[in-house]
Sequence to fold (199 residues):
Amino acid sequence: MTDELYHQVFACGCIRFGEFKLRSGLLSPFYVDLRVLVSCPQTLRALGEEMAQLLKQLAPDRIAALPYAGLPIGVAASIASDIPLIYPRKEAKGYGTARLIEGSFQPGERVVVVDDVITDGATKIEAIKPLEEAGLVVKDVVILLDREQGGDRVLARHGYTLHSLMRLTPTLDALVRLGHITDEQRQAALRFVAEHQFS
Fold:
């Protein structure tokens, strides 16, 4: 990750600072929203190319992108890496093929799960279940940003390895270096993360 790419991620509004109520009800001094990347094609393309390099090292048969936020990221990485894409549906269609997984695949193939961000890892584990039930082999999860709250430990406990393009601490360091946030904002974000860990 270059400083230019960190700058683009910030300029797109992917990481915001202030006071944000999280799904858990906690008030956080920062918020990660990588869904907005769909409106920043240049940044999405660049991140897809970076992720493609990581995926090529893992050499999966397919990428399994998680709806909804992980899907555009997965598409960008699939195009950049030439690795075919599939995705598990949140629910089966009640008509047509009634598939739970969209795209072509064969049981026994190795897939790498792709998503936007990880906090506690619970949604990743839930999304992996239908992939494994369909006979696919999942060992690795690749995400854009690790909030460093223990999601890697939770995944490891279930037998999965986390790989991230960005981790929160170096991202915050870059944003301070670039003059986008103050050191006080960086410290407040790191304190929040340290006080809210999952294992």
User: Anything to note?
Assistant: The beta strands are 15-21, 27-32, 62-65, 85-88, 101-102, 110-118, 137-146, 161-167. DSSP finds seven helices and eight strands in the chain.
